[in-house]
Write a structure and sequence with these properties.
Layout: E1 2-6, E2 9-12, E3 17-24, E4 33-38, E5 45-50, E6 56-58, E7 66-71, E8 76-81, E9 90-96, E10 100-101, E11 105-110
Length: about 110
């Protein structure tokens, strides 16, 4: 199983980024998908999840700003991040089916 995350970068506060994570070697459509993040010195935390049935769940700190989606045909999940804040600076990881993690993509928000 390989998960390739992309789309991170440096953005000013208030800006937007769209993260992507493409999966291979896994029957993507059968699994719950999640985006997590880990800031320096902090534990990894859940950002958003989307079930195989496309039900979504968000951490309180991103509600109304981030949107998770999935494209089962392309085996890709997306995280649209709007109104970014400096507190959103972290490495963002995608997860498939709880067991499989991508390498992560760095998001840095400058204030």
């Amino acid at each position: 199983v390989q998960l390739q995350a992309s789309g991170g970068g440096l953005v000013q506060a208030g800006g937007s980024l769209r993260l992507s994570c493409k999966a291979s070697g896994v029957n993507f459509r059968l699994y719950n998908i999640g985006w997590y993040r880990q800031a320096p010195g902090k534990q990894r935390e859940m950002v958003a999840t989307i079930s195989e049935g496309h039900n979504t769940n968000y951490a309180d700190f991103v509600k109304g700003r981030f949107t998770i989606s999935r494209d089962n045909i392309r085996r890709t999940t997306y995280l649209q991040m709007n109104a970014l804040q400096s507190e959103d600076t972290a490495v963002y990881y995608c997860n498939v089916g709880a067991a499989h993690w991508g390498r992560g993509t760095q998001v840095t928000v400058s204030s």
